[in-house]
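User: My collaborator sent over this chain with a note saying "see what the structure looks like." That's all I know about it. Can you take a look?
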Amino acid sequence: MVRGPARTQGHLTHGTDRRGGGHHRSERLRESTLLRCLNFLEKSQKGEVYLQGRRIKHHEKQLNKLRQELGMVFQHFNLFPHMTVIQNVMEGPVQVKDMSKAKAKKLAARILEDVGLSDKTDVYPAMLSGGQKQRVAIARALAMDPK
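Assistant: Without extra context I'll predict from the sequence alone. Here is the result:
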């Protein structure tokens, strides 16, 4: 939740409430701005950021821990082109959470099954459709067990 107005790149975000029924461009921008502020990819000019009742500050140690708890999928997915699908999903748990490669591979295989990509584990991102790349990016975020 954002308390007080947070202004980033000219967009005003006040919590996550939507005005109106549909997803208008301005609503998507507010949602995107909020997510970017939560991860401190953008700094708000005013207000405070709270996540699960705890105030989030811009300190490197706290940010690294926080980013392990948040899952974020970017517009262009940012998959590693030199890694297979399963390697892309395994990378975070192995590098950030010090998970063994064997355990990470089992986790990745289960998540890829959940997103309907169990037949693409050994495929490189260049061979995937846009929708498949998006599901790999979602699987990669889920592999970090976000809150």
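A starting point for your reply to your collaborator: Confidence is low (pLDDT under 50) at residues 1-25.
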